[in-house]
Automatic annotation (TrEMBL):
Keywords: Endonuclease, Hydrolase, Nuclease. The keyword Transmembrane helix does not apply. GO terms for molecular function: endonuclease activity. This is DsDNA-specific endonuclease/ATPase MutS2. SUPFAM superfamilies: SMR domain-like (SSF160443). The keyword Hydrolase applies. Residues 5-82 form the Smr domain. It comes from the Bacteria. Pfam families: Smr (PF01713). The lineage of its organism: Bacteria, Bacillati, Actinomycetota, Actinomycetes, Streptosporangiales.
Length: 84
């Protein structure tokens, strides 16, 4: 199962971005999704950096397996999960 989160509608609301990211990660764990696609968009890259900082937090990092940046579209990230 794949989940998708597009951050375009809330790109300028920091608290909502963190909340949306947390919710999609929790949903992936609940539904045992193997992949979450996060779309911060291309823009200046600030939103992507914010998403990567969020994902790099120790307690969040423990929840997923790895992150890939889309090589063809720099406005997209993939977060992969391993469920036991």
């Amino acid at each position: 199962m794949k989940l998708k989160l597009d951050l375009h509608p809330i790109y300028n609301r920091g608290g909502e971005i963190d909340r949306a990211l947390r919710e999609i990660i929790d949903e992936a764990i609940r539904k045992k999704a193997t992949e979450v696609e996060i779309i911060p968009g291309k823009g200046s890259g600030q939103l992507k950096k914010k998403v990567l900082r969020f994902l790099d937090q120790k307690e969040i990092k423990a929840l997923y397996h790895r992150i890939d940046k889309d090589s063809k579209n720099h406005g997209r990230l993939f977060v992969y999960f391993r469920h036991k």
